[in-house]
Amino acid sequence: MKSFVLWMRKVFDINVFGEPNACSEAIALNAQAEELRMLEDDRDNCMNEIGLLKEDLARKDAAIVALKKLVSAQAPGISATDYKSVYFQLQSTLDENYFVLYHAAREILGAEEVWEYFPIEDNIGYFEVADGQTLIKYLEIHFFAQLAEKGSVSYEEFAPGVEVIGEIIYDEDALGEFRRKMYKKAVKNILGE
């Protein structure tokens, strides 16, 4: 029986004193070496991916610099109404969520953050995921809109999820002038001027 126990211990890589024998240590070292090889492969893959991302970023940075130079060269000849089209040419690359436009609007109006003017909507959470365009709609309502006389009642949605009873009337001249300034300011901010 004693020889069977010794044989079992040898099979399971444990010596007579309950300590790992050389065979089990070799297996453990081999497993660690394999794990290190896998980690090195992962590191190499990550380094390659970082290199590709850096190259892509360098190409995009060069394109942005060229685009900014092109627009800056044309800027003196751009009319006030053309700034809107220039902005939308730049927007998809340089202002995806319209926050440059929103900050330009705030600068022109000397406005606080939009939630300062709409505390109820802020408490409900409307501004948590809003993009710049939505925030601009609220600024325009605060600065340029008023409800028509009580006689003309309709529902008009002016922002996601918010309905107002009454027709909204904008001061079209002031709103148009504001928008022209906003687009011009946004283009200049994008160009770093």
Properties at a glance:
two-stranded antiparallel sheet, single chain, mainly alpha, 2 domains, elongated, 193 residues, two-stranded antiparallel ribbon
Report on this structure:
Helices cover 65% and strands 8% of the residues. The protein has 193 residues and is mostly helical. α3 crosses α7 (172-191), α4 (99-109) runs parallel beside α6 and α4 packs across α7 (172-191).
The general outline is elongated
| Largest pleated sheet | 2 strands, antiparallel
> Strand-residue fraction?
5-15%
- Give the total of beta strands: 4
Q: Radius of gyration over alpha carbons?
A: 33 Å
Number of domains: 2
Please work out how many helical segments DSSP would assign: 7
Low-confidence stretches: 150-156
Report the helical percentage.
Answer: 55-70%
The side-by-side strand order for the widest beta sheet comes to 1-4
User: Which structural class do you get from the secondary structure elements?
Assistant: mainly alpha
Give the mean pLDDT: 76
In sequence order, what are the helices and strands, one letter per element? HHHHHHEEEEH
The N- to C-terminal Cα distance equals 91 Å
Provide a quick synopsis of the model.
With 193 residues, the protein is mainly α.
